[in-house]
Amino acid sequence: ELENLSDAPFSGDEENGGSEERKTEINGNWIPATSITEAKINAKAKRRLRKNSSRDSGRGDSVSDNGETLKIGVVVPTSPKGKLLDRRSRSGKGRGLPKKGGAGGKGVWGTPGQVYDVEEVDIKDPNYDDDQENCVYETVVLPLDERAFEKTLTPIIQEYFEHGDTNEVSEMLKDLNLGEMKYSVPVLAVSLALEGKASHREMTSKLISDLCGTVVSKTDVEKSFDRLLKELPELVLDSPRAPQV
């Protein structure tokens, strides 16, 4: 028995098993020591690669988990993150351009130059109104006030003294909304004629005669001359011969 003993720290069975892998118990499981060592080396290599890739981002290539060489910035297609952020078509078609030329999104006007057809009225629409079909829209012209009246009609009458066409004056006055200022047309015409020549007074008489019944009524003409007689003291300041004329 003494001869069979040796100075080796392990028994004979352990020496015979020296060529076999050592096993370490981790969490109750026996794992070969070589596997643990390889796992540590691989983990250390991966940490070094990640550190270098983040430091040299955009330069050179990196190595994937499978050992394949990949370009920096390219996400592995098999990763969920790569599929989520990938804007390319799933079918592999398309050039990455916006859909419908940029006219298919929410709240957009459409493609440039697009002409929309007139929408047909839906009779079954709850907001449908029969009167809308027969509506006639007209341009509303606001009536002239006293200041705007004199500023607008003065150049018209002065031009009449040059061309002498009463029809043109009548058409221009019809386009205006004189409102309650109709009676002021003869008042302004006579006031301007008093400051002019005798020919201007004769033309003013003809103008009032032609406008009576079309633009102004007889009542408006009577009201205008009543106002002229009341304002005669003021007219004398500009035209001393106003009472005789």
UniProtKB/TrEMBL annotation:
Compositionally biased intervals (Gly residues): 99-110
Subcellular compartments: Cytoplasm; Nucleus
Major subcellular location class: cytoplasm
Ranges annotated as biased composition (Basic residues): 43-52
Family: Belongs to the PDCD4 family.
GO cellular component terms attached to this protein's record: cytosol; nucleus
PANTHER family: PROGRAMMED CELL DEATH 4, PROGRAMMED CELL DEATH PROTEIN 4
Protein name: Programmed cell death protein 4
GO biological process: negative regulation of DNA-templated transcription
SMART domains: MA3
SUPFAM superfamilies per the UniProt record, alphabetical: ARM repeat
Domain MI residue range list: 148-245
Region annotation (Disordered) ranges: 1-111
Pfam families, alphabetized: MA3 (PF02847)
A molecular-function term among this protein's GO annotations: RNA binding
Taxonomic superkingdom: Eukaryota
Annotated keywords: Cytoplasm, Nucleus, Repeat, RNA-binding
Record-linked InterPro entries: ARM-type_fold, Initiation_fac_eIF4g_MI, PDCD4
TM ranges: none
